[in-house]
Amino acid sequence: MAYADEQPTIAVKGKTGIESIDTLAVNEWDIPTTHNSLLYTMLFSIFPGGGQYYTEHYVRGGFITGIEGLLIYEVYINKSWQKDRVLEQAQPFRDSVAIFTREMMLGNRDSLEYFQQKRNEFASRVREKSDKKMEQEDLRYAENAWLFGLHLYSMFDAFGIWYNNNYRSTELRSMKKALLWSIIPGFGQMYNGEFGKAGLVYMSIIGASASIRTSQRMVEYYLDRKHFVEQESPNSEEYEKIAERVTYYRKNRNQYIWGIALIYLYSMGDAAVDALLSDFDNPLHLAILPDLTNGGAQALFTFDF
Q: How far is 256 from 62, CA to CA, in rounded Å?
């Protein structure tokens, strides 16, 4: 039997009135931690994975430390060794070019053709080593950019852990605002409180932009080589190889350009979807509440998207 002074049950977003439901943890990815100092979080994040270790996210920190460590080794140790190795291999060919150049200047005319042929052979080998060195240097530049982007992501991710540990919200966000903010790459993710995703967007854009630059630089380098060889021997095997390298690096450049466009579109779609589902963890979406408004006890089941 219903009484006249009874008030109807009002559903309030985020509150069911049942303590065991209202206190459910909703941030499963960002594990709650007692380390809530923003200053220490960002100071530790200067070191690869340090912010994650401080906030007790050891697995995430371990992945970041491992990947950054491998990139640091590749960029600053292995690539330097490869450069020295190429220079060492090219030195005998340079010496041979110098020897046959001197013989051409001092030798008799009967041997001039032979000396010219040998000089050209060794000069071709020097150019091959020079090409390899250029490719390694450009790859090193691109890898260094990806390393910087990864470290930037780790700092954004550490900040996101701290933020969600202190200000996690299951309130519904505006999809329109998320789309408007996402016009600036990464801002839509930050509007939704997904700072780690924003870091991924910036890492991808930085790495892809650097790869575009290095690919374009290699295209220009090989085009210059192509024009030079074209004047000397357009039908040679060297000319064909250079033409292939031009095509290869043009393809790489175009793929990274399309990649940045797709990253931008993805960031906008991701921001819209995250805003649409921002209150998905709200306990009121899946709750059984008492309803005494119609006389007698009834079960009210809400499940909405």
A: 29
User: Cα dist. 301→20, 24, 297, 304 in Å?
Assistant: 17, 18, 13, 10
pLDDT digits (tens, 9 = 90+) for 94-127: 888 788 788 777 766 667 777 777 877 877 788 8
The pLDDT tens digits for 10-33 are: 444 445 556 665 565 554 556 677
SS3 5: coil
- First-to-last CA distance in the chain? 34
Which DSSP helix (H) or strand (E) runs through 300?
A: strand 298-302
d(CA 93, CA 153): 45
Task: Determine the Cα–Cα distance for residues 8 and 294; give it in Å rounded to an integer.
Answer: 9
Nearest to residue 178, comparing CAs of 170, 169, 187, 188?
A: 188
Containing 288, the helix (H) or strand (E) segment is: strand 287-291
Q: State how far the Cα of 52 lies from the Cα of 154, in Å rounded to an integer.
A: 8
d(CA 268, CA 62): 30
d(CA 86, CA 88): 5
What 3-state DSSP class applies to 12?
Answer: strand
197, amino acid identity: K
State pLDDT tens for residues 244-301: 889 999 999 999 999 999 999 999 999 999 888 876 655 555 544 555 555 554 544 4
Position 19 scores a pLDDT of: 66
R_g (Cα) of the chain, nearest Å: 31
Contact 157, 60 (CB under 8 A): yes
pTM score, two decimals?
Answer: 0.76
CA 31 remoteness from chain centre = 24
Judge whether 208 and 179 are in contact, CB under 8 Å: no
Residue 198's nearest CA partner among 256, 255, 141, 274 is 274
Instruction: Answer yes or no: are the C-beta atoms of 152 and 201 closer than 8 Å.
Output: no
Residues 6+ apart with CB under 8 A from 206: 145, 146, 148, 149, 152
